[in-house]
Specification:
Radius of gyration: 19 Å
Oligomer: single chain
Helix content: over 70%
Protein name: UPF0756 membrane protein E6C55_20660
Largest sheet: none
Strand content: under 5%
Pfam families: DUF441
Keywords: Cell membrane, Membrane, Transmembrane, Transmembrane helix
Order of helices and strands: HHHHHHH
InterPro entries: UPF0756_TM
Number of helices: 7
Membrane topology: Multi-pass membrane protein
Number of strands: 0
């Protein structure tokens, strides 16, 4: 019963914050629980990130498939300073995602703070959730910076 209350609370928060993503996700999970389909929750947990990343990647690659991004645009990524910054940003983001995954393996209970922080970011800051790995990667970076200052 506790899980259902939390999901209803998330639905309310999503509605108040006008976050259709949180509202829809919480509704779907509530339906899974109410229909006694909990046996699928581990699969959703394990494969959900992959499926979400697949659709996110599809959305990002649509301009290539539709022809909006041409070969000259790809070349621009290697010949302009903004393109190089984007390349560095992409590499840094994937590195941080890896560090986030390492952090979650060592300290899995951090996921609670990451989820609540993501909800706060969606509702109050009008952010878009792209996954716990980036949030964990940023958390790992902040923890490393705080450790550096604590050691001094």
């Amino acid at each position: 019963m506790n899980g259902e209350i939390v999901l209803v609370g998330l639905i309310v928060i999503g509605l108040i914050g006008r976050s259709s993503i949180i509202t829809t996700a919480a509704c779907l999970l509530l339906v899974v629980k109410l229909l006694h389909l909990q046996r699928y929750l581990p699969t959703i947990e394990r494969r959900g990130l992959e499926i979400g990343l697949l659709f996110l990647t599809l959305a990002v690659l649509v301009p290539f498939a539709s022809g909006k991004v041409q070969l000259k645009d790809v070349a621009h990524a290697f010949t302009s300073w903004t393109g190089w910054v984007a390349l560095i940003g992409g590499a840094a983001a994937t590195y941080m995602n890896g560090k986030g995954l390492e952090l979650l393996k060592v300290d899995p209970q951090l996921i609670v703070g990451l989820v609540i922080g993501s909800i706060v970011g969606i509702v109050l800051l009008r952010g878009i959730p792209v996954g716990p790995l980036m949030a964990a990667g940023i958390t790992a970076f902040i923890l490393k910076v705080l450790q550096l200052f604590a050691d001094k």
